[in-house]
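A further point concerns the way the authors explain their paired sequence and structure data. Each protein is reduced to its one-letter sequence and a matching series of backbone shape codes. An entry of this sort, consisting of the sequence and the corresponding backbone structure tokens, reads as follows:
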Amino acid sequence: MATTPGLERFRHIAVEGPIGVGKSTLARKLAAHLGADTLLEQPLENPFLSRFYEDMPGYAFQTQLAFLFQRVKQMHAAAQPGMFASAVVSDFLFAKDALFARLNLSDDEFRLYGQMYAQVAPQVREPDLVVWLQAPPATLLQRIRRRAIPMEQGIALDYLQRLCDAYVEYFHGYDGAPVFALGTERFNPVDRDADFAALLERLAAFRGRREFFNSHVEIPFT
């Protein structure tokens, strides 16, 4: 369990944000500190993802459905009694699946996707806390280039801008769990111990529904 007093109340922390922002790395570090299990996306298990990056309109629907079913399976496994006796830190929020669907699918595809999503979404519990990581699109692109995953190298700046905007729009109306928005352009809790300690302190003291820390995007919440 948590080694920082105040964090033990969060049984499931979901780390969210656009591609390249550092979700998985921070999720692993938080889990190690908390003595928690990790629940991580498995993008390499999606057989359509590399083709999606080459031809987004042609493979968006297949890619989205593959991720939807993958996440449903993961969340169902996490909900099994005894499967996760300790806390859990995930690098995704199940509800964000619909965010990507709205961004990438045509209207007809989205309507069909929505029918399937509506059947499974009520079965998935919300986390106790969402840590929403943010960075400007240009910073995200630099990080994507630096980590040099081949299938990601064709991602364009304008797509990252639309993705960041979609996250802002999504969290503007999200009320499934408390949201802690964290800017990562200059604040680096993964590589700098002082920043990680500051993040833990802020999370432990977080008692409201919304908070912004080092964020370059501050939005009203409904």
The chain has a mean pLDDT of 90.
